[in-house]
Amino acid sequence: MAEKNTPLINELLLQVALHPEFETWLEEGKIPTELLKKLKLRNKMRQTPLLNQS
Fold first, then answer.
1. Distance between CA atoms of 36 and 34, rounded to whole angstroms?
2. Which residues contact 25 (CB under 8 A, 6 or more apart)?
3. What is the pTM assigned to this prediction?
4. Pick from 17, 23, 43, 49: most CB atoms within 10 A?
């Protein structure tokens, strides 16, 4: 299970660190949940093969 989620976690860490609000989140001590959900969905969509590929 850990191996399956490792690419997702790595991608989330990278995207969060590159976000313009990262410094603010460090000061506040938390990352908005909605942002993490959006990044997770974006990553999932990127990994899902297109259904109509030939």
1. 5
2. 16, 19, 31, 32
3. 0.59
4. 43
40: buried, middle or exposed (CB in 10 Å: 19+, 13-18, 0-12)?
Answer: middle
8 in Cβ contact with 46 (< 8 Å): no
How open is the CA angle 52-45-5, to the nearest 5 degrees?
125
Q: CB of 44 within 8 A of CB of 16?
A: no
pLDDT digits (tens, 9 = 90+) for 1-52: 567 668 878 888 888 889 999 999 999 999 899 988 888 777 777 766 655 5
Contacts of 11 (CB under 8 A, 6+ apart): 39, 43
